[in-house]
Design brief:
There is one protein chain. The radius of gyration is 20 Å and the shape is elongated. Helix 1 packs across helix 8 and helix 6 crosses helix 7. The protein starts with 7 loop residues before the first strand and ends in a 12-residue tail after the last strand. The strands form two sheets. The chain has a six-stranded parallel β-sheet, with helices on both faces. It has a six-stranded mixed β-sheet with strand order 7-6-8-9-10-12, with helices on both faces. It contains eight helices and twelve strands. The protein is α/β, with parallel strands linked by helices.
Length: 279
């Protein structure tokens, strides 16, 4: 248990090289420092064992709180810790009583999919990250959008990838070459980048040759020559909410835990064709 304040907060993120995590941890750090806390950031490399070592390292050094973007679903590990000042961001872990800050992954994915379906796209490439609660919720929203529209998704067009741009590129390339899809729904920053790189390299016309909806309106996604239809996560709000929960947890470790779900927004661009025109 924490007996003395150190005015230090630890932060664990999956990868420094992912722009989403980079922007989020920068916002978290700025907010913590404005409240007179030092920040130490560690990277798990999407490895559960490394994440556990990072958490243990912060606890051993008596950090006042830890903000963690967890990898996988490590219920037993986190249940075993005699340390309650952990705020989890962007990913849910079942079976533990802790503070969570999430976004409405299921609802926004369903909304995005219905937007594509409403424009006549029934053969949609759905791209989802492996071993992620967040991605499972986005996939659930994707499938339920079809069901609520009295349709079924094409299982051959549902792609599962690791957090790897090259893998995203290759799997989308294979499906586009087979001319099976009219649209791509890239449900992560990494899959959005992989799709954009492919479209640019193949000189595909968007939305005439292929329609695309991406995730995370940051950095390289803004360099796409056509204004991208994209789902925007409230990164600054995620950071501020996580820090607010951490500070409240430091001041009152016994307070009831919370799960806060923030809303994403669908930003319409010019990358979705309307296949219903002319019917």
């Amino acid at each position: 248990m924490i007996t003395k304040k150190t005015n230090c907060v630890g932060v664990v993120i999956p990868e420094f090289g992912n722009a989403f995590y980079g922007i989020l941890v920068t916002a978290i750090s700025k907010c913590l420092r404005s409240n007179n806390y030092e920040v130490i950031v560690k990277e798990s490399n999407y490895d559960e064992k490394i994440e556990q070592l990072c958490i243990k390292w912060f606890i051993e050094r008596k950090c006042d709180a830890i903000i963690c973007l967890p990898t996988g679903n490590q219920t037993q590990f986190y249940k075993s810790l005699d340390y309650s000042n952990i705020i989890f961001v962007d990913n849910f872990i079942k079976g533990i009583d802790r503070d969570f800050v999430l976004v409405d992954n299921y609802e926004i994915s369903k909304k995005g999919t219905k937007f594509l379906l409403g424009n006549g796209h029934t053969n949609i490439v759905g791209m989802f990250i492996n071993n992620s609660y967040t991605s499972l919720e986005r996939k659930r929203g994707f499938i339920d959008a079809y069901k609520e529209s009295n349709l079924l998704p094409n299982d051959d067009l549902i792609i599962h990838i690791d957090e790897n741009v090259d893998e995203a590129y290759e799997k989308v390339d294979n499906l586009i070459n087979q001319k099976k899809a009219t649209a791509i729904f890239a449900t992560s920053y990494i899959s959005t980048l992989g799709s954009i790189f492919l479209i640019n390299e193949k000189n595909l016309n968007v939305p005439e040759d292929i329609s695309i909806m991406g995730f995370d309106n940051i950095m390289l996604t803004n360099l796409f020559k056509t204004k991208l239809t994209i789902i925007n996560q409230p990164i600054q709000e995620l950071a501020l909410t996580a820090v607010d929960l951490a500070l409240k947890r430091i001041n009152n470790p016994e307070k009831e835990h919370q799960t806060i779900i923030l809303k994403c927004t669908l930003m319409e661009g010019n990358t979705i064709s309307n296949l219903n025109k002319g019917e």
